[in-house]
Write the structure tokens for this entry.
Amino acid sequence: MTGTMRVPRSRGGISGILLVLLGLWGGLLPFAGPYFDFGFAPDDTWVYNTDRLELSIAPAAATVLSGLIVLFSAHRAFAILGAWLGVLGGAWFAVGGPVATLWDMSGVGAPLGTGNGRHLAEQLSGFTGLGVVIVFFAALALGRFAVVGVREATPPDEPGHEDSGTTQPLVFGRYARESAGPGGPGGPGTPPQPRPPGDQRVAGEQGGVER
């Protein structure tokens, strides 16, 4: 069981990098957006208040931390916790504004755009749409770390472990070889046994792969 907790560091590479970038975008947009006339009022850069702390900085920090954990962790449980942190950060980006009105929070500010299209683009890229994308990549990382591969489940002293360089499929049922010994079925010196129509050999058995 302990061996299944170790995972390759590259498993969450893409998701981790994207989570870090998305978190930085969400955290910096309200502060640096006015440089490009894209963001939220007031039309001044680096304006700080508690609303921006709770609605932008906090979920952005959670998302960036989640991406770093997913990117560098080699422990399955720790990486899964990091992915869940990203899910929570993305969810707060998406619904934090409406929920925060329950305790009379005014929000980070009105969108700077003058048209409805600009308003929609700023709101989606800064909160709702950004949160949905973060949840997607965090859930993708969560799914990848939740799956135990064949090489990870194989004990180190058995064939098919990582040092073999390949991942061997797990075969069950009547097609599995019951014994690999000389006296067992399928061992050296045992005459070939008739197989039902459509039966196929497993890669690595005597005679190669039958097509």
User: Anything to note?
Assistant: Residues 26 and 126 are 6 Å apart (CA to CA).
